[in-house]
Amino acid sequence: MLLTAPAKLNLCLFVGRPRDDGMHEIRSLFEPISLADQLDVTEAPSDQVVCPEVGGENLAAMALEALRERGWDHPPVRVEISKRIPVAGGLGGGSADAAAVLRLADGQVEGIEEAAAELGADVPSQLRPAFSLVGGAGEQVEALPPPSEHAIVLVLDSQGLSTADVYAEADHIGLGREASQLEQLEQRLRDAVAAGASPLDYTQLLVNDLEPAALALRPRIGDSLEALRAAGAARALISGSGPTAFGLFADSVSAEAAASELGPAAIACTPVAP
Fold it and tell me: Is residue 274 part of a domain?
């Protein structure tokens, strides 16, 4: 079985102050895109997850363990992951892989959603990749009408950036919105996307509150953002905690042209439908 695990783009990311549990309340628009990892699943003598690009604990392996703990009795499997989503790039690659593994047992065991939330904040939204409004610490996922035409150009960084480090820097420099602001922004986002509008129609709402923190830790991200704007992006910002920068374009043709202009670090992508 060959599974696809699409990257997610944070079209916007509004971040609250730290909660009592240390997590941050967020409001974000998540969009799955055509850049994706591939998971090749075959039967094997014992469960195994193979992904040379990921050192240490792999969320996909943890997802497989979670399925077994919940009683999934499928014969043992080997999951070989072909990484195309940059590790620690702010595109949710590890979470996408974990969600794809959880989908192996969809309808066969209970508690898949709970398992996703336990694995990480980005995993619930990627169980069923779709354009979504995400709240809480990532566990509240509301599917939205698919947006109208647009395309994306990613500018990848050669080195990943730790999400924990970016949030710690955000706390250090005093970033974080009040709960009332997050609620107001949630309503504005819901109103903006209600009729399936393109993100190009509400660029004023496309803000990433973590951008100052990511730029403080990795100043060269600023060069990527400027390059995207110079190449014609209607809006340029970072995805998630970075360091990947992205720009929005009207269509695939203009995105491909911009990516060609920007060089080998740039990739043109499109949204993917559920």
Answer: no
- Cα(181)–Cα(201) distance, rounded to whole angstroms? 22
What mean pLDDT is reported for the chain?
Answer: 95
pTM of the model: 0.94
Nearest to 51 by CA among 59, 258, 194, 67: 59
Q: How far is CA 143 from the centre of its chain?
A: 15
Domains identified in the chain, total number: 1
Q: Name which of 261, 259, 264, 234 is nearest 247 in CA terms.
A: 234
Cα separation, 155 vs 230, in Å, equals 13
Q: Two tokens at 73?
A: 């009795």
Taking only the tens place, the pLDDT of each residue in 194-233 is 889 999 999 999 999 999 999 999 999 999 999 999 999 9
Q: Collapsing DSSP states into helix, strand and coil, what is residue 169?
A: helix
Cα(190)–Cα(201) distance, rounded to whole angstroms?
13
C-alpha angle 216-219-222 in degrees, rounded to nearest 5 = 115
Which residue blocks in 34-162 are alpha helix, DSSP H? 59-69, 93-102, 112-119, 123-126
Catalytic residues: 8, 122
Residue 44 maps to a domain: yes
pLDDT digits (tens, 9 = 90+) for 126-140: 999 999 999 999 989
